[in-house]
Design brief:
about 190 residues, Ribosomal Protein L31e, Chain: W, 2 domains, two-stranded antiparallel ribbon, about 15% strand
């Protein structure tokens, strides 16, 4: 489905008067979404950056009572923006982010060899390598630390009776300081 553009005058005053003063801009945003969803017959509505700034321009108590907006219908969602707002389209490299700047080759061990193009990419690559080394060191030292303070004891044979459970409870001697507050009251 091709993109379709429509321009609407959205009345917000009737909706704003239904809520307390401090919730009016929040209600204006919801009313804008509802209006566009109804008129564009789309469930998923995205509010643009400049329209959002315009709605919140005078704080949460004083939103505009009427706005002219441009609705752009795509395949999955409708975007609402001010008619004179600049259209920001990112080039494909920026959309991909750091991964777009890197050329990756996966080796047999599952590691990634990276050919960097900029100093930023080199710094990011070094940071990733450092974190991987730290993870490996932690993984090597973790089992030793975990088992150093634990004593492995074989559990005694437990019979599921009330008497045995009470005996086990009484074996654990707890001082008054260690007792939780709800037990102290008793």
């Amino acid at each position: 489905m091709a993109e379709k553009e429509m321009i609407y005058n959205v009345p917000l005053r009737k909706e704003l008067l239904k809520v307390p003063r401090y919730k009016r801009t929040q209600k204006a945003v919801r009313a804008m979404r509802e209006f566009v969803a109804k008129h564009s017959k789309m469930d998923n509505v995205k509010i643009g950056k400049y329209l959002n700034l315009k709605l919140w321009e005078h704080g949460r108590k004083n939103p505009p009572t009427k706005l002219t907006v441009k609705v752009i219908k795509d395949k999955d969602f409708a975007t609402v923006e001010l008619p004179d707002a600049p259209i920001e389209e990112k080039p494909e490299e920026e959309k991909k982010g750091l991964i777009g700047k890197l050329r990756e080759k996966v080796t047999g061990k599952g590691k990634i060899e990276v050919e960097s193009e900029t100093p930023e990419v080199k710094k990011e690559e070094e940071r990733i390598e450092e974190t991987e080394k730290e993870k490996e060191e932690v993984m090597k030292s973790a089992p030793e630390k975990e088992h150093a303070h634990l004593k492995v004891e074989e559990p005694e044979k437990k019979i599921d009776t009330r008497e045995m459970e009470e005996k086990e409870r009484h074996k654990k001697i707890v001082s008054k300081v260690q007792k939780p507050k709800h037990e102290k009251r008793k």
